[in-house]
């Protein structure tokens, strides 16, 4: 077609080529500089000058590619296409393009997969197979209350810019669509643990909790899940201690119950918050406490079975301890624990294995910090700089003596001798890990003369060669 048009003096050009031609003609006529044309065409000045020269010598056809209307230099021979299509019709009629290419290559007929697919489509030997989205159907509800509880957080403009940014965290029962929700300033693990505690105190322990794969529920390393299947997050550890199964969904559609509840909440509760002119998280929760009973009354469904699968909390289920951020630390020899760049002195009594053992630091939701050794919570005192517990080991007496001498020189007084022990020194003949005895009071020195060693008369050293 292009050849026929050229024979009639008609040149087929694309829109891009026509735009380039208009700019270059302005350059040839002097209405535009080479630099301006290079900026418009996103080419270098050298390329614009080269195209300008070709335009003057060859005319408008200089901007059209030389192979326009001609077969590609890389096209396969017509003979090969005939052989491939004949072999496909005879032996590989129900083969896909990929598998057929492998079999044809074994016969010496090498052709690309996409090339063979185009040939088969042109001959009507293959139909394009479109990949459709997988069919999804709603999973039937669980049979009874407490069998499965879905949990998720919704980041939304709940206050429509009137106040602080808040996040809604929701727990919804799969069997009845009963909702428990609360607004938080951050969608952190502490917020999720707090809402879980509200559900546990109100209903008991469900059989399973269904969540997404956020790092709150699934351990991640640089955005990717950990390879260790036994790794747990703080939330997963808490569910494990409560004997609640954690199920992590692979798609948002899998936990559609809680996702659809957010659609209802974002439509109704946003307007309720607007009418009440709520601007803070506390006021939002106060209003939500009034909205939840009506919401559950309006949208909750009766379960197929009247049973309640929730299990009561036992004596060993201390929620304040379980629903906390826990970290392990090692107790030093002087019963000191370091956590968050702060030292804590463990107070008596000392339990067997406590020194050198591991303790659990509990950062509870009420802001307090507890230290647990086994099942016992230990009393402790924070070591403050310059306080009565200013360090893990007292200063040696020589430092105290030098400080007293310096004080005497500046004040002109004699140094006052302290009758209390200035420190502890290891008992003679024992290592530093054994019980210690105090230094003598009053700065008295202990005579510990070293006996000079002399070899016996018959010692080999005394023998002369």
Automatic annotation (TrEMBL):
Segments forming a coiled coil: none
Compositionally skewed regions (Basic and acidic residues) per UniProt: 411-420
GO molecular function annotations of the record: nucleic acid binding
InterPro entries reported for this sequence: Homeodomain-like_sf, InsJ-like_HTH, Integrase_cat-core, ISNCY_transpos, RNaseH-like_sf, RNaseH_sf
Pfam family, one: HTH_28
NCBIfam families for this protein: transpos_ISNCY_2
PANTHER family: INTEGRASE PROTEIN (PTHR35004:SF7), TRANSPOSASE RV3428C-RELATED (PTHR35004)
UniProt-recorded name of the protein: Mobile element protein
């Amino acid at each position: 077609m292009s050849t026929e048009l050229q024979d009639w003096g008609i040149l087929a050009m694309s829109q891009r080529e026509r735009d380039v031609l208009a700019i270059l003609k302005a350059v040839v006529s002097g209405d535009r500089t080479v630099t301006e044309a290079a900026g418009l065409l996103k080419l270098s000045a050298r390329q614009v000058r080269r195209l300008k020269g070709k335009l003057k010598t060859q005319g408008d056809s200089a901007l059209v590619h030389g192979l326009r209307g001609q077969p590609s230099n890389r096209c396969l021979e017509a003979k090969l296409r005939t052989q491939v299509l004949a072999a496909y019709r005879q032996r590989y009629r129900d083969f896909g393009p990929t598998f057929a290419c492998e079999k044809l290559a074994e016969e010496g007929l090498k052709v690309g997969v996409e090339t063979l697919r185009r040939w088969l489509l042109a001959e009507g030997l293959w139909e394009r197979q479109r990949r459709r989205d997988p069919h999804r159907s709603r999973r039937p509800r669980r049979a009874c209350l407490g069998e499965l509880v879905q949990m998720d957080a919704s980041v939304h403009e709940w206050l429509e810019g009137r106040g602080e940014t808040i996040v809604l965290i929701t727990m919804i029962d799969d069997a009845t669509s009963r909702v428990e929700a609360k607004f938080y300033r951050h969608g952190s693990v502490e917020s999720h643990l707090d809402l879980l505690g509200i559900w546990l105190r109100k209903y008991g322990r469900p059989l399973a909790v269904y969540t997404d794969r956020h790092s709150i529920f699934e351990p991640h390393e640089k955005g990717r899940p950990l390879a260790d299947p036994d790794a747990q997050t703080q939330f997963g550890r808490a569910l494990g201690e409560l004997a609640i199964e954690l199920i992590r969904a692979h798609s948002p559609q899998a936990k559609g119950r809680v996702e659809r509840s957010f659609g209802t909440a974002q439509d109704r509760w946003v307007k309720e918050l607007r009418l009440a002119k709520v601007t803070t998280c506390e006021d939002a929760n106060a209003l939500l406490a009034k909205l939840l009973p009506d919401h559950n009354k309006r949208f909750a469904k009766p379960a197929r079975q009247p049973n309640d699968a929730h299990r009561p909390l036992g004596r060993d289920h201390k929620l304040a301890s379980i629903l906390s951020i826990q970290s392990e630390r090692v107790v030093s020899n002087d019963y000191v624990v370091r956590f968050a760049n702060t030292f804590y002195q463990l107070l008596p009594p000392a339990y067997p294995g406590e020194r050198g053992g591991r303790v659990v630091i509990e950062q509870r939701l009420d802001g307090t910090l507890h230290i647990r050794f086994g099942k016992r919570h230990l009393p402790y005192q924070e070591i403050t700089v310059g306080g009565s517990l200013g360090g893990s080991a007292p200063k040696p007496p020589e430092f105290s003596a030098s400080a007293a001498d310096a004080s005497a020189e500046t004040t002109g007084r004699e140094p006052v001798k302290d009758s209390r022990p200035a420190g502890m020194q290891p008992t003679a003949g024992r290592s530093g890990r054994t019980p210690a005895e105090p230094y003598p009071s009053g700065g008295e020195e202990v005579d510990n003369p070293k006996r000079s060693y002399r070899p016996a008369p018959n010692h080999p050293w005394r023998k002369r060669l």
